[in-house]
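Following up on my earlier thread - several people asked me to post the actual chain instead of describing it. Fair enough. Here it is, all 312 residues.
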Amino acid sequence: MKKFLVLASVVLIAACSKETQAPTPDNSIKAADFFAKYKVNEQTFKGSAALGFTITGEKGTKITFPLHAFKDSITGAAVNIGDVEIKLTEILSKKDILLSGPMTESNGQLLISGGEIKVTAKLNGAVLIPGDSAIKVEVPQVMKAGDMNLFVQAPRKQADGGTIPPDFQSTWVPAPYAPFGMGASSYIFTLPAFTWVNCDRFYSDPAPKTTITVSPDFQDSDSISGLQVMIVFKDITTVITLPFNYTLTQFQSYLNSLPIGKEGELVLIGKDENGYIEFGTQHITIAADMHIDAPIARSSEATVSAFLNTVQ
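Reply from S.P.:
Thanks for posting it. Predicted structure:
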């Protein structure tokens, strides 16, 4: 699945030629600068492998690494000396997912998320894996999503002999043998690997399911790169990306995955040939086999950030 927007491999789509090109709006910002400013930052910590240690992220995620918590990823040898470098990314809102986290789907099925984190560990540049002692994680329940289970990133299942786009080759799958529970205000579990993990569950909706397609309606540029089309759902903590279907030359949801009648915000974002943000959004209600021609235009930082402030 991958990751976000300008960080994704480029999808280049030709639009109808325009006689004139719209002027760059006031307060415009290059896409690279925008995401550097607004994306969720990766945090760095250090701790003694000989003593064990605990870290607490900026958003409240607490991780306890006891003695024997690390092994060398190549030799499998226990790592019990030296200062270990931990990298932590906390994705604890729909806005965080939209900007920085893996989208909330599992092989095309919608997931409700209670929070995602990514944890990696290195010693002197060498990659580590979890050791024999359990690593305890506590993720704050700030997304108010209720009971959850633990999911990890894994290769996506091949469907119908089709080709999986490079940016969508990973997806969320249930974590095997991972103890998981709920505290008074946090999800508590044992870290199964140094990777992305997600506190979430499958979304069960009795409504009939459908497939939708989206065609960007380019307002002012002959080409948009790094383009992604996403849906931020209104009443569930779910954000998905619509993969680009190269046969249809349209963005298409996973087949029969979207509940008819569900509301959300359709979001298009990418960059123009000069590297500036191109953006569009509209409120949608999922209807059977719906197709949307979605406007996208060169936009100011204020326009995009104003929308982001509405995403909770």
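Helices lie at 31-38, 94-100, 301-308. That should answer part of your original question.
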